[in-house]
Every structure is written in C-alpha cells, then in structure tokens.
C-alpha cells in the first residue's frame, strides 16, 4: 500500500462513523446517512434509557427506605418485563399492519443498511419497524423479554447506591460506578428488547437464530453471578 493511499476510502469512512457508535451503544442508530425526523432519535434514546429509569425509581424508593432492596429489585424487573413485552407487541402490530412477515429466512437485501426510510408519523409502522424491528421467532420474543426483566431486576440489586457506597467508602466514586454500571446495563438491555447491532467490521449481521443479542447480557450476568456466589 502506497503512502498516499488511505486506509479507508470515503465510503468506508462514512460507513465506519455510522456503524461504530451503533456497535458501542448496543444498537441505537443515532447517526444515519440521511435526514430523519427528531422523534426517530428521541424514541431510540427513550428506549435506551428505559432500564435506567426503572432502576433509578427503584433505587430512589430504596434510598428513601420506602422499599427493601429485594422488593425494589423485583419492582424494577417487573417494570422492565412489561416495557419489553410492550415493545415486542408494538413491533408485531406494526409488522402485521405493513404486511411484513416476522420470520425472514430468505435471501437478505445487501443494500438494507443504505435504504432510506420514509418516516410519516412518530409511531407509524415504518418508524416502529426501523426502531424496533422485532424478533424473528416467537420463542426469542418470550425468552428475550423474560431475560430483559430478570437482568434489570438483578442489575438494580447489584448497583444499589448504598451498597456501592459501603464498598468504595466514597459517594463520588460510588456515583461514577453507578452511572457506568447503568450505561452497561442499558447497552445489554437494548440488545434484548430491540435488537443488537452488527459489529463495525461486518456490513450485515449473519445471525439467523438471534444468538448475538444474548452475548452482552451474558457478560453482565457473569459479574452478577460472581457477586451472588460471594454473598
């Protein structure tokens, strides 16, 4: 390769900067190659932060001593389960309205990443299918929804502020760990309730049976399992 030849050409650079944030955040597409209405980004941000909202409410109730830690974790898990079920129901309804078959095992469209979506309304079928395309199989709908609730419940229990403060002995350090932990949990949850992102080096995900969405939650469960075993 000559010294004047770029490592990535213009198209690959554009593709990289669109895909890299999506990979890091676990799926949200905040950078598109075309102009999209603001509600497309807002809806994705709301979905991404929903686990943190439920966990934050449960943590606050626990800090105010209105709920015990166990009940606060159960509340967070139940709320997340209900939200995940609602997202899957909305995705299924949108697919039926637009006549889209849920199980797509045929030849994929290699240009799907570059297709421009025409958004008409905030919750139109096109918008819903873009943000939450739904699962291919009914078993995955049930499994991922249940895992989303369980992960949020255990995650809330794992990062209670009182527990972190007792562990680190500093409120500032506890807040930093609390924020970073919930960002990690939001990334893992997004893979379950919506869809996981293809890796940056992959143009199109080749995950027919939707195994990839389970990898990020698995890493989180490993850390929680170690803490549970220690206790």
From TrEMBL:
Keywords: Membrane, Transmembrane, Transmembrane helix
Coiled-coil regions listed: none
Record InterPro entries: Pecanex (IPR039797)
Top-level taxon of the source organism: Eukaryota
Keyword Transmembrane part of the UniProt annotation: yes
Membrane topology type: Multi-pass membrane protein
Signal peptide per UniProt: none
Transmembrane segments: 39-58, 70-95, 137-160, 166-188
Intracellular or extracellular location(s): Membrane
Record-level GO cellular component terms: membrane
UniProt record similarity statement: Belongs to the pecanex family.
Protein name: Pecanex-like protein
Source species of the chain: Xiphophorus couchianus
Lineage: Eukaryota, Metazoa, Chordata, Craniata, Vertebrata
